[in-house]
Amino acid sequence: MELTTIKDFEQYALDHLGSAANIYYAAPAVSGTTYNENITAYQNYKFRPRYLRDVRHVCTELDVQGHKTSLPIGFSPTAHHIFAHPLGEKASASSAEAENVIMIVSLMSDFPMEDIAKAAPNATLWQQFYILADEEVMLDLLRRAEQAGVKAIVLTVDQCSWRQQTWYDNDDIKKLLSKAKHGNFQKYIAKDSDFITQFMNLMPWSTNYASWDQITWFQSQTKLPIIVKGIMTAEDAVLAVERKVDGILVSNHGGRHLDDLQGTLDALPAIVKAVDGKVDVYVDGGIRSGQDVFKALALGAKMVFVGRPILWGLAYDGAKGVGQVLDILKSELKYTMQLTAFLGCTNISEITDDYVIRTESISKL
User: Fold this and answer.
1) CA–CA gap between residue 221 and residue 239 (Å, rounded)
2) DSSP-assigned beta bridge partners for residue 152
3) What count of Cα atoms within 13 Å lies in the side-chain half-sphere of residue 318?
4) Which of 364, 130, 117 has its CA nearest to residue 229?
5) Coil, strand, or helix at residue 274?
6) Rounded alpha-carbon distances, angstroms, from residue 124 to 74, 147, 151
7) Is 80 a catalytic residue?
């Protein structure tokens, strides 16, 4: 079977992964409004192409946090890759290494961060973190990440409380989650204890507490760049800049935890304006094509991160399948760059909001 679009990979996963894994990967918060907003937000922007420009040579490379990447597309942190493929995050990291793109490794990975780094020793890996209830465990995890050679810390700030979602109350889901390895946390939990209970007690929602001071704590403990993930307003973006973070990832957790949020693309322009070039701004959520990637870059994102499409590629053919997903996104992005060419548009830095227009603005012209 030849898969030629991201939609094809999604359909393959739906047909082959099993209902429990598909529900786990795709599940929205409750009604799915935020999940849907992430996707439909891209449909609200149309292209403004300029033709008869020389775009024979198009370059998609760029420097991000001091490292060169082949694409302005990276892997968002997603948990439990073994539900898609036995090699899990190891296979995903191997693909990121082969394609020379950034992978944000979830703290909820099945394999320990050290094993993932060993599986892809030349990959550019960023390690995702939560603000944990146990500071000693958090510090030990941070030291492990440094020793594993990760290049940045991505601190998720939009999940400091927990509500069991309706999709979770399902015997097949519970059976699936019982197979999760939680590789990063095994050393902190006694083998003869209730793993899930102790594990949940380590998570941020066990205290419902988080503050901007914890950003400062992370900065005091490591020299690695700190990227804050989960910013959705200009006001919080300004606070992040004041805390001297190294980057902001505009994200709403893939629409998994709270309904009725803006789509991330709609939130992006105000955040970019508020930051005013002081730090990099990235975005994830709802990206399903190279055209979507272009629109996010045009609205000011330094690069984008994708989550579910990576899992669909992994389900199709492991590391090779992930590589195919990236190839599709890269091909679509380059084609879009060529057909919206203005002043050449031969590299990522030349993509600006001159190339896109919001749908309601068209009706006013």
Assistant:
1) 20
2) 126
3) 8
4) 130
5) helix
6) 10, 14, 7
7) no
Dihedral over alpha carbons 250, 236, 139, 227 (to 10 degrees): 40
User: DSSP secondary structure string, 263-330?
Assistant: PHHHHHHHHHHHHTTSSEEEEESS--SHHHHHHHHHTT-SEEEESHHHHHHHHHHHHHHHHHHHHHHH
| Choice among 81, 182, 253, 257 that is catalytic | 253
CB 84 within 8 A of CB 17: yes
Asked whether 204 and 160 are in contact (CB, 8 A), the reply is yes
Three-state DSSP at 150 gives: coil
- Residues 46, 359 contacting (CB under 8 angstroms): yes
Give 365's pLDDT tier (boundaries 50, 70, 90): low
User: Is beta strand 226-231 parallel, antiparallel or unpaired with respect to 62-64?
Assistant: unpaired
Q: Are strands 247-250 and 280-284 parallel, antiparallel or unpaired?
A: parallel
Instruction: Tell me the two tokens of residue 70.
Output: 């082949």
Cβ–Cβ under 8 Å, residues 326 and 95:
yes
Query: Tens digit of pLDDT for each residue in 45-73?
Result: 999 887 777 778 889 999 999 999 999 99
In angstroms, the CA 20 to CA 177 distance is 9
